[in-house]
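I wish you would study the pair of lines that follows with an eye to the fold:

===
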Amino acid sequence: MSATEPDATERSATTDREIVISRAIGAPREVVFEAFTEVRHLSRWWGPEGFTTTTRAFEFRVGGEWDFVMHGPDGTDYQEWITWTALVPPERIAMLHGERRDDPNAFESVLTFEPDGAATRIEMRTLFPTKELRDEAAEKYHAIEAGRQTLDNLAAYVTGTDHEGAEG
């Protein structure tokens, strides 16, 4: 696993397989990073609007796994699995995300946390194995909108504008 950012040539070669979402969040970087690293936080904000999360296993370390189910607002359950491939607190998280371990369609995500004044600029760069899988995620599963909603949920949680998040 490389801990370095891809250069411009590598990045342009993967553009048709990527989804990149970013957002400024009105909280310090350490607070935003912690919301990604502790399951007591993750389970309260993770996922698009209307989704809830049930964690089966969680071990936050390189090589550790997060095994969880996302419950859609229509009652559909989505089996999810993440393993962390690189961690640079509080700057960067890299992970492999699929439905299960050894999922051939698993995708890589790199999250960067940059200070932006008193806020944090978070970028979520997701690289799919193929353009077709990226397009399917965007069209069938609305991955771009879902990603934005997920970062909105994170922002509401860490800034306390989400009433449930404000309690914990």
